[in-house]
Design goal:
By secondary structure, the protein is mainly α. It has one domain: 5 helical Cullin repeat like. The protein has 8 helices and no strands. Helix 1 runs parallel beside helix 3, helix 1 runs antiparallel to helix 4 and helix 4 packs antiparallel against helix 7. About 25% of the residues are buried. The model has no long low-confidence stretch (mean pLDDT about 90).
């Protein structure tokens, strides 16, 4: 029986593209695509060492989310941008991203005493929305869940 090893770099590019489109309000994510990507994360995380990529995925996931949210912040520095639309895209991306990487929170983060992916992404989301809203209390209350 041949064991197929999944390549991290090749598969991460696929996940990176998928996570990026999750933060776009105009793109509808279908369940089949989501489950395929979730399965890919699972498979990358459950390969035997040294091919278990849980740490790589955890680190890359957070770096990617930070990059995307910084782009959203920069976008909102333009006064002509509809901040509500940007915040809606952040909430959409947050919801899909933490679910996509949820397998990490079952084993990887507890074993390694790391902050959960869900909590980490939530804090990044809050910081970004607070930055975008600045002193607009009404906008903050509307979007902080």
């Amino acid at each position: 029986m041949n064991i197929v090893r999944l390549d991290f770099d090749e598969n991460w590019k696929c996940l990176e593209e998928y996570v990026s489109i999750n933060f776009d309000n105009d793109i509808k994510i279908n369940n089949k695509d989501f489950m395929n990507k979730w399965s890919l994360v699972y498979n990358l995380c459950t390969q035997k060492s040294p091919f278990n990529y849980s740490s790589n995925i955890y680190n890359n996931c957070l770096e990617l989310i930070i990059k995307i949210l910084n782009e959203k912040k920069n976008l909102c520095d333009d006064d002509n941008v509809d901040k509500r639309t940007v915040i809606m895209s952040i909430n959409k991306g947050y919801n899909n991203s933490y679910k996509l990487f949820s397998y990490l929170d079952k084993f990887h983060t507890p074993r390694n005493k790391l902050k959960s992916v869900k909590d980490s992404i939530f804090l990044l989301k809050l910081q970004t929305i607070s930055y975008i809203c600045k002193d607009n209390k009404e906008l903050i209350e509307e979007f902080i869940e």
